[in-house]
Amino acid sequence: MRVSDPEESRVETIAAALIFLMTQYARTGCPRLALCVSRHMQCLAAHPHAGPVIRDTCAALHGAWSRTAIGQAAEEVLQ
Description:
The protein is mainly α. It is about 85% helix and about 0% strand.
């Protein structure tokens, strides 16, 4: 049995949580979930044990998710 590196599994855990949050956001459109997605992407973008493709992708998409969260929260306030 292979014992995994705790840091490696942490990246996998964050990525799994990110996929779950994105799926829930797709179902509900909740701005709080969009903010959680943004924060998870920010975490993966800065994680030293995440692969370069994951870091670059999350860094590129983090801003879009932040804007989505802020935009939806503002819409809720105006309603």
